[in-house]
Design goal:
The chain is an all-alpha fold. Helix content is about 80%, strand content about 0%.
Length: about 290
Amino acid sequence: MNLIKASLTLIRPDLSMAAGICVLTGQLLALGEMSTPIQALAGFFSVALISGAILALNDCIDVASDMINAPHRPIPSGMISVQAAYTLAFALLIAGLVLSFVTGILSFGAAVVLAVVGSLYNWKFKKTGLPGNLMVSFSVGMTFVYGGITVGLPFEKTVLFFGLLASALDLGEEIAADAMDMEGDKEINSNSIAIKFGRDMALRISSGIFGFVVLLTIVPFVLGWFRPVYLIPFIVMDIVIIYSVINLLRTKGDPPAAEGRGYIKWIYRGSTAAILAFLVMRLVGV
């Protein structure tokens, strides 16, 4: 039971499933209706499994900083060995790539890109600061585009919009999270924005990106892509973002890391809930 608990903690089911939900949203946006069961299941689980594999791999490579930043994580706490975690990551990755092939060769190619970018980030680019942040945000945005690819419509305008929105959201979260993890990141010689320019500067840059996200949510309504009723989930998301950003900035130069991470989680949860609400509204034909 401890091994199962450790494995689930490694793959972070909330993040992995959120990636799968983004794929389903991409499919729905591209088609204007739900995809076939095969497309939905293959799209959801292929990306969810690949995401889980990359997250598990991250813990394998990031043991040193986790000993400081997150000693409760499965590997530093001794719940699971590094070798077992690597085995889990490899098995999930293979399963995800196999499933991606179900919806075509382009889907498989996109899944390979996601897997390679994620692996390169864990192996080489996590310490690079902004380049690494951009790699992660690219992967998050690609989940929506991947959804469009699985149904043969990768360049549908609303798919690209949500991809950009998700990328910007994640970039802001990544930079803010680096500001919370400075002590551990110093131990691994990270080149994060927070370490190079200070925690306050990193939080200001992150806040500016979140401000861009709030402005971006207005665009599809100005262009007439969605009916006004769909403003509701976006407004809720924007309120959560603004509230969390204000509190992040108030923590100034020396915030307790746990407090800061809590506000970042609020942004993540608020945006995920908004996407889910949007998805449900489209499904029921609101």
